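sorry to bug you again but im stuck and you know this stuff better than me. what follows is a protein written twice so to speak, once as letters and once as structure tokens for the fold. id like you to explain what the token line says about the fold, in plain words if possible. anything you notice is useful, everything is just below.
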Amino acid sequence: MSAPSSIVVVGSLNADLVVGVSRFASPGETVTGHRFDVFPGGKGGNQAAAAARLGASVAMIGQVGADSQGAWLRQSLAGTGADVSLVSVDESVSSGVALITTDASGQNTIVVVPGANGTFAPERLAPAVSRLKAARVVLLQLEIPLATVERAAADARSAGAIVLLDPAPARAIPDQLIALVSIVTPNETELASLAGVPADTFADDDVDALARGLIGRGAAEVIVKLGARGARHVTRHESRHYAAPSVTAVDTTAAGDAFNGALAVALAEDRRLEDAIPFACAAGALSVTRPGAQPSMPAREAVLAFLRGAP
């Protein structure tokens, strides 16, 4: 039996098919791409890779298909140092795939085909429950069935773990899940979705109020990821903004995953949020300077050096 991991990630693994374009196509329009790459991805796999690259003991719990992509996803994630022994195989479906278009500014659009991620039902967590309950920090996202996310959150919280929920991709989530989570980490689009308002109708001044709406639904704390503007930590009575280091973006894919993975590492090391959030902002910023999802996740030494040199 494997040793307990300080961080356990329950989530998705995808093969990312990435096309680079000068600009996004309008509906009905064809544009010519200038590059094509295939990267290991999936929000769960990305966050596991991020934490492992930062030196944490990480276990990934998820599912792939019985195909060459599934074998490659497991092997690639294992190469980051993460334990993939609890990544199961569903022989009835393909592995998950994400179709990603990246423009000249580094922004992206993503279409996800769940594949084996979509059949990762709650009962398939059974072989991993002991590892889940032994974790210091558990990372969750929403690219696997919601019932599985709820089961993992309940098991982790009952054992006293810190539970981080990245509510992505944006979707409605029940209050009982929010109440099981230690920290919810939406970006602006996801925060708007959870609040039931259009993403383009609120300003920075509205972030605190919308985040406190989640606290009113049972969340203990909220950290809103603001991209190049950093992050905002909101509690019932206080809020604090953390600036992100300035970088030139090449590809913003998985920047939020780099943030969450780094946040988990810092919390597993018993750092206070005042230290953990700048560390996470630095990891997220560094990740956008390289293409791809998991290949862009920075090493610990790079993040620490970046922090020392950051203004």
Notes: The chain has ten helices and 13 strands.
